[in-house]
């Protein structure tokens, strides 16, 4: 008898979605993004992650993940590390 397919926890969905978004928006290889951990620096550390990339990433998050991001919800610190950005995405998906 087959086991029913399990839905991945929301945290896994947020993590995989964010990794996919970063790879697509920044044009980074998926294998590189797969190595990101909570303390991986992003904005200011990755040349690909500039202010235009932040704007594109926010737009793609809204479109692909189905939530609205208000201007007052976004802080520069949210883009400093992968962990901070993942926390932002998880908060929006909750």
What does this structure look like?
The protein is an all-alpha fold. The protein is 52% helix and 0% strand. It is built from 4 helices and no strands. Helix 1 (10-26) packs across helix 4. The model is unreliable at 3-8 (pLDDT under 50).
Task: Write out key terms for the chains shown.
Non-ribosomal Peptide Synthetase Peptidyl Carrier Protein, Chain A, mainly alpha, 94 residues
How are the elements arranged and paired?
Blueprint: H1 10-26, H2 30-34, H3 51-65, H4 82-93
Radius of gyration: 14 Å
Query: Helix/strand-derived class?
Result: mainly alpha
- As a percent range, the share of helical residues equals 40-55%
CATH topology name, in short, is: Non-ribosomal Peptide Synthetase Peptidyl Carrier Protein, Chain A
Beta strand count: 0
Averaging pLDDT over every residue, what do you get?
Answer: 90
């Amino acid at each position: 008898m087959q086991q029913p397919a399990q839905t991945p926890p929301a945290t896994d969905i947020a993590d995989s979605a964010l990794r996919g978004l970063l790879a697509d928006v920044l044009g980074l290889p998926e294998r590189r993004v797969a190595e990101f951990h909570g303390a991986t620096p992003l904005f200011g550390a990755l040349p690909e992650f500039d202010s235009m990339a932040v704007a594109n990433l926010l737009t793609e998050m809204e479109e692909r993940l189905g939530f609205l991001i208000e201007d007052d919800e976004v802080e520069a610190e949210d883009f400093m590390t992968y962990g901070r950005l993942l926390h932002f995405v998880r908060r929006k998906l909750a």
